[in-house]
Amino acid sequence: MTRISATRDAEEIEQKIDTMASAIRRGLSNRSAAIAAGITPANFYNWQRNAKSGQEPYASLWWKIQRAKEEGKLVLADHVYKAAERDWKAAAWLLERRAREFQRPDHSRPQTTEITQNITVEESKKKVEARLDRLRELREKYLEEISD
Questions:
Q1: Is the pTM above the cut of 0.70?
Q2: What tens digit of pLDDT does each residue of 88-109 get?
Q3: Is 38 within the bounds of a domain?
Q4: Second label for 41, Cα 20 to 30 Å away, from 7, 85, 119, 127?
Q5: Contact 57/6 with Cβ under 8 angstroms?
Q6: What is the domain range of residue 33?
Q7: What share of the chain is helix, strand, coil (3-state, %, to 5)?
């Protein structure tokens, strides 16, 4: 490969990585970003492997992808933070992720009561009321914090 050809290839790769970074920043997956940039997902993962092994131009451009991921997270977190000012659910979502004592044991699914526990309706109501009381406390605490 000639020097001119190598330069053109590096410029093309940089353009594609810039396109991918923009797509990733907006929340697209690596696969979708690769397709949007006009490369196959398999080729993207080859580029990733080349970057990790230090091969140029991939290694010097890879930080753009990593930075785009973090910038995208920051933008989304900022939206949730702003929404928390007017919607308690957004505030609860942030609190759940930032404060260990408010986290559910398993974020993949809500806790459920097993049918085999033979829990009475009255006991179930008490549990629900206790959770609602805790949420009310959190809401009041949050409203006090944002009013300061």
A1: no
A2: 888 888 888 777 666 666 655 5
A3: yes
A4: 7
A5: no
A6: 3-72
A7: 75, 0, 25
